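Hi C.,

You asked whether I'd gotten around to modeling the 80-residue construct. I have! Everything is below, sequence then structure, no commentary in between.
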Amino acid sequence: MTTATQETVGQWLEKLATTNSSSDQDSDRMEKLLKRCGLHSARVVVGVVYQEGQGQPIDIHTMARELVKRAAYPKITITT
């Protein structure tokens, strides 16, 4: 039996910002978060963020650091 843990978006972003690995789940979460923050065209594929859905990519960890720095994310809890 697996026990689910909860963390805030901020906690997840801080963890993602300080690591150098990510999962498919991290990519899915980042894309959903960016859409909630107003970047409706954002796409995240294998840890690479395309803020406008195409064009210049940014690493998922760099994006996490920027969001943490700006505190630009909803104050919601996620279950992991």
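If it helps when you're writing up: The first helix runs from residue 9 to 17.

Thanks,
B.
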